[in-house]
Sequence to fold (250 residues):
Amino acid sequence: MITSASTLPDPTTPAVSLRGVVKAFGTGDARTVALKGADFTAAQGELHLLVGPSGCGKTTLLSVAAGTLDWDSGTVDVFGTRLNGLPKSKVTAFRRQHVGFIFQQFNLIPTLDLTENVSVPLLLNGVRRHEAEERSAALLQRLGLGGKERKRPTQLSGGQQQRVAIARALVHEPRLLIADEPTSALDRETGHQIMEILSTAARSPGRSVIIVTHDPRTYGYADRLTEMEDGGIAGVHHGQALRDFISIHH
Ligand SMILES: Nc1ncnc2c1ncn2[C@@H]1O[C@H](COP(=O)(O)OP(=O)(O)OP(=O)(O)O)[C@@H](O)[C@H]1O
Ligand SMILES: [Mg+2]
Fold:
């Protein structure tokens, strides 16, 4: 059974655990096996980076972990809840309450202004509009977008849109925050500010942040780093091995 918002899972329970996960897209000649029996673990209280060449399966793995994409075989556990066989409605309810996403394409809603975009996860969780918009505006301010609350996403630069997407993913303080290239469109200073915010979120009890990145500037914020290759896990680094990895790839 999914635990309620008030009860934190045992701190030793992984935030995300994938075992032998296989995921193929398409059929016949068009068939691509994106995950070939991937084993992946992200602990609570950690900022976890996922790296690897384009097409190796990073976005697919994140989507499976987030419960937005079905997989073919293997097991998926999120904060101790096995997603295999869980009714769709339960997966959706869990995701709405406990998961935040920052998509590779920002997926902002063009007809809503910034405050309204950021408010969406709060409204879905039953927060009243006035309070939702107040919290959203405060977070936008923290992310350097004060004064732009009533603008539409298309009136912003790529880096500004990325920050709105980040605000929307953080606003309901999800247990699991999943981010696909959150710093790609950001200048150095803003990129570091965002990584500070994400690492603070990761290191709270019962929370976890997993980030796909090609950006070596983010490596120093990692507690653990998983390398993917061709649909599988090629290596997991932490401690001294992580520092060695960073010194080679920086
Ligand atoms: N919806 C889809 N339909 C068909 N094939 C897909 C689909 N999504 C992903 N793939 C294929 O699965 C493989 C893994 O894709 P994925 O998007 O997970 O890679 P990635 O590591 O995130 O790459 P990038 O760094 O370019 O974002 C690729 O070969 C891709 O073409
Ligand atoms: Mg991707």
Summary: The pocket of adenosine-5'-triphosphate (ligand 1) is lined by residues 25-26, 32, 34, 52, 54-60, 104 (CB under 6 Å). Confidence is low (pLDDT under 50) at residues 1-5.
